[in-house]
Amino acid sequence: MRHAVVKHPFEWDRNLFTLLKARRRQQRATVEKKWRCAGNAEDLEQLDTFHRAIRPYLCLAQVFGMMPLTNVLSRSPHLVKFQLRSCGTCFSLIFLLLGGLKTMRLATKLFQGGLNAKSMISVVLFTSGIVICVNFISLARGWSRLIVPWTGIDIIMLFPPYETMKYSLRRKLLITGCSMGCLTLLEHWLYYASSYSNFRIQIVHCQPNITQIPFKGYMMKEFADIFEMVPYNSIFIFYAFFLNGTFTFICNFMDTFIILISVGLSQRFQQMANRVLNAVKRYVPDAEWHEIRMHHILLCELMDLVEVNMSNIVLISCLSNIYFICNKLLTIFTKLHYPINYAYFWYSLLYLLGRTCAVFMCASKIHEASLLPLRALSTVPSNCWTEEVQRFNHQLGSQYIGLSGLGLFHLTRRSFFGMITTLVYYEFMLLQLDAKSNKDDLANSCV
Amino acid sequence: MRHAVVKHPFEWDRNLFTLLKARRRQQRATVEKKWRCAGNAEDLEQLDTFHRAIRPYLCLAQVFGMMPLTNVLSRSPHLVKFQLRSCGTCFSLIFLLLGGLKTMRLATKLFQGGLNAKSMISVVLFTSGIVICVNFISLARGWSRLIVPWTGIDIIMLFPPYETMKYSLRRKLLITGCSMGCLTLLEHWLYYASSYSNFRIQIVHCQPNITQIPFKGYMMKEFADIFEMVPYNSIFIFYAFFLNGTFTFICNFMDTFIILISVGLSQRFQQMANRVLNAVKRYVPDAEWHEIRMHHILLCELMDLVEVNMSNIVLISCLSNIYFICNKLLTIFTKLHYPINYAYFWYSLLYLLGRTCAVFMCASKIHEASLLPLRALSTVPSNCWTEEVQRFNHQLGSQYIGLSGLGLFHLTRRSFFGMITTLVYYEFMLLQLDAKSNKDDLANSCV
Amino acid sequence: MRHAVVKHPFEWDRNLFTLLKARRRQQRATVEKKWRCAGNAEDLEQLDTFHRAIRPYLCLAQVFGMMPLTNVLSRSPHLVKFQLRSCGTCFSLIFLLLGGLKTMRLATKLFQGGLNAKSMISVVLFTSGIVICVNFISLARGWSRLIVPWTGIDIIMLFPPYETMKYSLRRKLLITGCSMGCLTLLEHWLYYASSYSNFRIQIVHCQPNITQIPFKGYMMKEFADIFEMVPYNSIFIFYAFFLNGTFTFICNFMDTFIILISVGLSQRFQQMANRVLNAVKRYVPDAEWHEIRMHHILLCELMDLVEVNMSNIVLISCLSNIYFICNKLLTIFTKLHYPINYAYFWYSLLYLLGRTCAVFMCASKIHEASLLPLRALSTVPSNCWTEEVQRFNHQLGSQYIGLSGLGLFHLTRRSFFGMITTLVYYEFMLLQLDAKSNKDDLANSCV
Amino acid sequence: MRHAVVKHPFEWDRNLFTLLKARRRQQRATVEKKWRCAGNAEDLEQLDTFHRAIRPYLCLAQVFGMMPLTNVLSRSPHLVKFQLRSCGTCFSLIFLLLGGLKTMRLATKLFQGGLNAKSMISVVLFTSGIVICVNFISLARGWSRLIVPWTGIDIIMLFPPYETMKYSLRRKLLITGCSMGCLTLLEHWLYYASSYSNFRIQIVHCQPNITQIPFKGYMMKEFADIFEMVPYNSIFIFYAFFLNGTFTFICNFMDTFIILISVGLSQRFQQMANRVLNAVKRYVPDAEWHEIRMHHILLCELMDLVEVNMSNIVLISCLSNIYFICNKLLTIFTKLHYPINYAYFWYSLLYLLGRTCAVFMCASKIHEASLLPLRALSTVPSNCWTEEVQRFNHQLGSQYIGLSGLGLFHLTRRSFFGMITTLVYYEFMLLQLDAKSNKDDLANSCV
């Protein structure tokens, strides 16, 4: 029951001066600290800003040539900038060049040798890798325009009256990123294991007198496109593994990045909701409601900024995920030879589905957190129901807040359900066609 | 016409004191009774609470190891709690163990003998049974956090000014539950009848000299997975029947439970709508509108609580229903041998469709009932149109109230229509493929 | 420009007394006339009420046993009632009996002779005919509860300040009904022409020495199910034609009835919108806005009443239309023999599509007309923007107004587009399967 | 931060008189200029009106008989009218006649020679061309009712306080139109190149002793329907090319026209949003908010006018685009002979997709621009939050603003995504059927 939350006015008046004094003193201290933070990178480092939490990932992305930023490890977000003449940009260009070469080589082979599933998927993988890379470079160009206001909001929301969350942003992002990384590495290792196992079986079958399986042979087959051009030595083996690994990493990094951004944003909306929840329980002057509303507008503007910079990446992420899932679903009825093949196939399918699901769930959390204050506001007592509160109430419900794929679809639970429904329906159709096809084959073979 | 609903103010003033006195006396009596109820389980038993109405079903669920609660028959909802070291939990664990064993055995057979429709459906049935069971145990853990606030709202809404409904909640739930139970039993009996009939025919065809159909043989075939491991005796026959019956019961119980919860919630929203309907016809002070609005918020919070605890069960229910319906639809063109087979097939298909329809219809009633006060509020006369009423009006339309499947879809008539449309479309496609397949078969057989 | 619509207050005040006097006199006259109308059927007859306009259709429906009402031609809507012991009910029962007999006979033949398209569609036609009939009888039972409030609203809205529409309701309904009737008759005639043509060709091919095509033979074939039971004479020929005609009529009548109801409702919403449009151009006292709002609530309540009574009929109408369209689409690639066959096939397909389209378009007009005052209200000048207007504005946008199919879908242009999209997609799939099938046939025939 | 946007009232008061004087003088000047513009076509020509920008396209459309308007080059929009007895109407009629003749001839050939993809698509192209033409003539009839109010709004929005956009409307429309035109010409040229290349190959294969490819032969084959009726001479060659070119042009013009209209409308909504954005930063009297709101209503009414006149054209555009895309997708697996064929096929498919995408994107810009002021309004300071602003805020979110296809669907990014999803899904199904078909063919060929 919320009937008696507003204290008796007289009781409240008694301690008015003392209370107001204390509050003013506190506010002044907070404002001072905020100003110090904004100017001083040392103090900023103490705070659980998004900049501090995302930094390791930016660093990692730079190694793979995805986000060519200077001073990426700097404590001040102002210094993290895109510079055309920098080591990172150089790295990115070399990377795009090598990727482009490999893609062209694969494409040439595809057109020469005719379309088949395996070469097709490689071309798509490498092409989408380059597209993603270019989009991330474009994101890097606008990164400082994004992270500076974000840090501004972080500085506001990391001091009272905003409560700190149970787990720090840094910890959340670390756990999310590491678990995603481990799962990716396992998937990549399983791919090689499955592929090597296939190669070994083939050798044993074809040349039964060979006792030792040559590693070089496997390399020659797996990276045929490379070793047809360059001599076989350890540098190029490393190069081949590196290039393959990097492009697998890019796709995974893209999804991880969307998840990290979503976690960062939803944490802030969650904090906003908590503050509103606390506010409705006590008497809140109009000025504070105004402040809350202004902070909410700031958050919405940050959301818009993220949306403008990220919506193309979100679209590419969803499209590539759906393509790879469909591709896996197409071969779901193919008989495989060995348990390791099954393990790889099912693990990678489930991992893909899980990753897509995680992207949608984390992104939809933003929208859900943004709607949380709505219920709380309805319990604001009548004498506090001022125009400010009314405007805040109206503002909360008026526009959609959340990530979208270039405005074509919103990342919500409902759109995820729609996507999954379509995929399942498609799979059922395939199943049916396959069953009929098998029956036809039987009929034909009987003839 | 609603023009003259507000009496002339003078006429109203005349009996003011008398009226107010009587009302105050009445209110005091009600509040006292409410307090007595909240403290005293005897008085609570007199009321038509949801706790009293759902009790028999909780009891039944406990027998099948689904809701391990202590004091399930207690009159006070405070005493119904989940305890780790209790008879119920023990029961649940044994149950999960036996179910798990059977599932693993069926899964092993499935992998050994190759995929076929009959064994596949058994594995899905038993797996989903275990998943449902685990979810219900998790619901049981949060049951006391759910039923205590619910009873609190029940105590509020079972006294004037809320009207009692025509039929008591207990009676509604009893009729709903019993009819669902009977239909389930009939379906289960038809399954055995159809299966036994098939067995008899097979025996008659293969061994024409046998005059008496051996019951043991049927048992051996029907419960092959059990009697391959244990000797054939009456205890294990009972065990086999019990396990099969229980897992069939679980699926049905899940749907019935969602329906019961929906009936309970929609009754309260209906009462709320009735009170608003009565309120708009007479002069209502602002304080009463405030009370109505606060009660509505309480109801919405209860709805949220139910949603948090039940949405996973709703999702599983819908998915399993759709799977079983699709499975039936796949074999709709298969020629069956005897009328009993047809009777079982069509009865079970219609029963499945009817059950799914009932779940959606009952759940959508909550949403529909929650919107009922909206129209009534528009007839509130202008002099009574205070800020409280305005806020109530706004509050009613601002958020979706109703059950959902983990937020992926809402249980409304429209989503039900969408689901049915997809199923019908799928069936039409199957029909078309089947017709073509038959034509091809004819063509092939002519060759 | 709408800047100068409010006259200068002084200018307005000058003629105040004269104006108010005249208006009061006029209002009193209108109210008197309204009261006279409500009591006197003679005066009511002069008005363009919906009752007067729908009367001929009710009469027609009674002849075919669909709406067993007494005093259907009466001028007073109070007298049009459902009576269990009346000629109409008797008619309906006989009708249902005959229809039921024919349906059972057709169903028996279907099960005996195996499923084929032609007998299947007859069974569906007759079954749906009976279902429609039962639903219309249930509508007839509630007809007086529907038409009396409707006439009440008609009486209000047929006097100033409501403007009369350009075309009277009676004329609109007459034109709509007659054109629908003619198209139906043409379709029915084409059916017999096509069927008789087929019969003649068959005779000519099989028995080339016969010079005269026997009419009796055609009757025997067309109405095989009847003339196997009863002797061939003119009474039973009439009976056969009558029964066939009636059931074709029922489906068409259902759609026509929905269209007529929609036209009637949308006319009233249109009048409401016109009044609001006129109101925003001049100074309107708050009391008048209150009156407008109350009339709007009355209209919405009438809409709810229609929705409760008609939504099952709307659902059946849509389902049967979709079934018959799909059925036609399935045979779209079948080679037909003669131009008359093509004429019948394409005419009946286009007629079906057109009828379905008309139902959706007319029904969606209600919703569109109900939203019309929204734009007008935004031009209400600030000094007239009272709470009443605000509430009216809010009320207009808060709930969906329009017909629905049991709440499963709304009859809007968008849902019509969704339906058509699904049908076209389905047809494309069929086309593709058919093309492939033809190719396979060619391949097989080459073998 | 927006905390300090409202100046201190005293500071503001000091310059009040001077400021108000200057503003009044400026306003008077603007109003005078506006009045002069409305009356004087010379002054109007100086302004960047939509009429001036669309004029060249109307002129072009008139040449191809699509928009029979008189005085199409006139500077005053009042003079651009549809006249029954004019050169343009005559032109249109001749054009429709010739088109109708060709269509009937193609249709006759289609029915005689049996349905095949190539002749089918020609018939659809010419039929849709005629339908589009008729719809454009109907648009021309209502053009003056559309362009006069549009110019009225243009005159309002081309003076301060509205800011001019970076690029003038004329320039935008010129660039859009020219680029669309060039792409269309390239597509048309590629069509002839591909078709001629096919013809040459065929000649070379069939008659290897011919050294020179006869142009006449190609003409005879390409325009068989024309040269079967008329003798082969340069006039009829021109006529054949002209007719073909025109009907290709019509489809493209329709899409271009929708894009141009959308650009024009979204520019105005963008200006409105800019004005609101500027208004929230300073103190704005209520009268100015009223003016803004009235201008917004004017814009919405213009939008409605455009919607009424254009929605049928939008529907036809979308339907024909989808048909041609589907048609291309159907033949995506067909093996083509020469690079030029591939170039034409892929260029025309991508061009079609791009054009459809452009139509949806440009049209959705209107809706997006209309929602822009919503966020800005939430930052209006509390002391300026008057009823006018509140009504404006409510007005912005209450109704959908944008183009639709006869109300059946809205041109938004989401509906575009839905359309593309369906197409991709359909293509995947085709792919699957094709793969299976190939397998069957292999199986059959092995037999």
Describe this structure in words.
- The structure is a homotetramer of 447-residue chains.
- Chain A has 447 residues and is mainly alpha-helical.
- Chain A has a domain at 163-446.
- Helices cover 77% and strands 1% of the residues of chain A.
- Chain A has helices spanning 9-14, 16-39, 41-46, 50-63, 87-113, 117-141, 143-157, 169-206, 215-222, 224-227, 234-279, 286-330, 339-377, 387-398, 413-446, and strands spanning 69-70, 81-82.
- In chain A, strands 1-2 form a two-stranded antiparallel ribbon.
- Chains A, B, C, D: One of its GO terms (molecular function) is sweet taste receptor activity.
- Chains A, B, C, D: It comes from Drosophila hydei.
- Chains A, B, C, D: It holds the Pfam family Trehalose_recp.
Number-wise, the strands of chain A total 2
Radius of gyration of chain A: 28 Å
Amount of beta strand of chain A? under 5%
**Oligomeric state, counting identical vs distinct chains:** homotetramer
Helix content percent band of chain A: over 70%
Coarse shape of chain A: elongated
Family (chains A, B, C, D): Belongs to the insect chemoreceptor superfamily. Gustatory receptor (GR) family. Gr5a subfamily.
Transmembrane segments (chains A, B, C, D): 82-101, 121-140, 174-192, 236-265, 302-324, 344-363
Function (chains A, B, C, D): Plays a role in the sugar gustatory response.
Membrane topology (chains A, B, C, D): Multi-pass membrane protein
List keywords for this structure.
disordered N terminus; sweet taste receptor activity (chains A, B, C, D); mainly alpha; two-stranded antiparallel ribbon; homotetramer; 2 strands; elongated; 15 helices; Gustatory_rcpt (chains A, B, C, D); 447 residues
